Task: structure prediction
Amino acid sequence: MPFPSIRPLRLATSSLLLLLCALAHAQPAPQPAAASTPAMRPAGSAPVDGTAPTPGGAAAAAPTAADAALLSRDARRIYELSRDKLVQIRTLLRNAGTQASIGSGFFVSADGLIVTNFHVASQLALEPERYRGVYVTMEGQEGEVELLAFDVQRDLAVLRAKGRTAAAPVLSFRPTTDPLAQGERIYSLGNPLDIGFAVTEGTYNGLVKRSFYPRIFFGGALNPGMSGGPAVDDAGRVLGVNVAKRLDGEQVSFLIPAEFAQALVQRAANAQPITQAAHAEMTRQLMEHQQLLTDRFLKAPFREQRHGNYRLPVPDDALARCWGSGRDPAFPGLNLERTQCQADSDVVAGDFSTGAVRLSYEAYNAPTLGAARFARMYSQSFANERLPTRGNRHQTAAECTERFVDPGSVPLRAVVCLSAYRKLTGLYNMTVLAISVNQPTQGVLGRLDVQGIAFDNGMKLASHYLKAFRWEAAP
Result:
C-alpha cells in the first residue's frame, strides 16, 4: 500500500500546490480533489455494513426526530457562543494586496492574541518582506495582524490583532484536568473553502496511534480553509486546533491538543513581533525535532522481517506503520516481495515538509533465472532507484558516496546521499541505499530516507540501519 497522504487545511490560490501533502504546504483554490491513495480501514472500525451489535442481537435503534433536533440545537448553540471569537486569517502580497492564502483562527486574550496554525502564518514568519497578514471577523471587520511566536513541531502560531481599541471576545480552554471521554461529541469551527464560517459536529476518538507528536483523532469533516480554527466541547471550551485530514478516508481528521496552544500563548504574551525572516528560529526548532527523532529510533531496536534467510530491519510498531505486498505477477519466474514503512513525524517548514522517516525493501528470489540473468535484473533495480541529484530552491543537489561494506553478517553495496537545506543551516535530507551481494539468485534492496537531519545524527542512523541487516544460514 502506498504511503497515506494527509491534507493540510489552509487554502491557497496556487494550483501548483494541489498535490502537496503531509502537513507541509498550503492548499489550492477550491476544487474537488479525489483521494490519491486507497482507503484504509483502521483497526477496530465498524463492520462494512455500518451496523453494530447490541445486547440480544437487535440492531441499534435509528435516531429519533427529537434526537436530531437536540443535536442541531447543540450545534446552533455552539455556533452562537463562538461566532464573535472566530476570525479568518488572510496572507496578502504586500505590493499587490492580492490574497495568497487563507486559514482560520480564534481570539484567546482580551488584548487580541489569536491562535492559528504555523502553516497558515508561515509566510509571515519566513517572508515578511513580501507578505502581510490580516484578520477578518464574521461581521466583516478587518485588521492587521503581527506574528509573535510559532511552534514548528506542533504546527501552531500566535498572532496579535493590531490597533484594537475594544477588548476582544475570547474562547477559553478546557482544563487539562477535565479529560475528554471516548466518543464525546465535539465541534470544529472554521471557514471551509472561503465560503463562510461553519460548525462541524463530530466525535472525540482519543489520540492518534503512532503519531510522533500527540494529535487528536476527530471523527468529523474538516476542509481546506479550516486550518487553525478551534474545536470545542459542549460548553464551548477549546480542546484542540484544526490541522489536517486524511485523503484516503472519510471523516478522519486531526486536531492539535489545546495544551500546546496554551503553552505557546503564554510564551507569546510578552514576545516582540517577528519582523525579519525567522529561519534561524525555525532551524533551532527543527534541530530539536531531529534530535528527538534520532534518539527515539536509536533507543527502539529494529524488529526483524524475514525474507528467506534474510532478516531486514523494520521500525518498532510504536514508531511507524508498515505495509507489504507479495509476489508481483509482472515478474514471472521471480519471487518479489515489497515492504514500505513510514513514521508519522513530518512537520511543516514553510511551503514544504521535513522530518519524515521512510523505509522500503524489495526482496528477490529467482532460483530459475540463473546467476547472470538475475545479476542483470538485480543491478537494474538498484540503478532505477531515484536519488535527489538535482537541487531546488530549498536544497542543494545531493552528494553521494558509494562503497562495499560488511557491517554484520551480510556484505552490502551501499550508497549514502546528503542534500543540504539552503536556509536551514546544518540540516540535510539523507538517503541510504543498500543491496546485498552474498547470493547468486537471491537478494534484498533496502532504502532509508530521512528528512531534516543533522550530519552527525544522519551518520548514526545510517550505521544503525546498515548494521541491522542479517543473513541467517540454514542449519
User: Anything to note?
Assistant: The chain has a mean pLDDT of 85. DSSP finds six helices and 26 strands in the chain.
